[in-house]
Amino acid sequence: MTVHIETEPGTADLLLFPDPRNATAELSRALDARRTLEQVEDGTQRAGSAFRNALNGRVADAGGELLRGIELGTVLLGGWLQYRELGLAARRSVEQPGSTEIVRLTGHTITSKHAPYVDVYIEGQYVARVGFGIDLEFGVGLLQASIRNGRLMSLRAGDCTASITWSVEGFPVAQNTARLTMPLQLRLGDEILLSGANAPRP
Question: What is the pTM of this model?
Fold first, then answer.
């Protein structure tokens, strides 16, 4: 079972563009205005209008899909699981069966960098690879984690802001910062076994 944390906004495209229907159009306009794909066009030696329109439109579509595929709650949870304090608490809870460890993380930052790419084909022929950069940063005021038998049972999160920077071929295209909301109390059951705590299920 995959643990899922619901956030608002929920995915990277909604953090960058509040209206998902406009995401692809905004990306396409940004690509065209900044001419970030000129190097790719020159490298293919097929920089006619048909190629440029296809490249711009298809890359914008693909960029929107990539952004939609990044769930902010999943990124946040993955970042929290890397904290050493949680692993140490998990180990203590295993050494003392039945005990519950409470870990408090005060103001902290979680960063996550993604580097997906899109391969472009024209008439079935490979012509270019377009690299994206999706950089996320979360500023969290407070996190309280409850750990039992080596497993993360619940999270209580405070205020959180999320920032995103989107780039193509190394050129910044768009960025935004917004407040991220999520349930105050996140109950996770016994699905998440923390690193270093090989505890049997209770």
Answer: 0.81
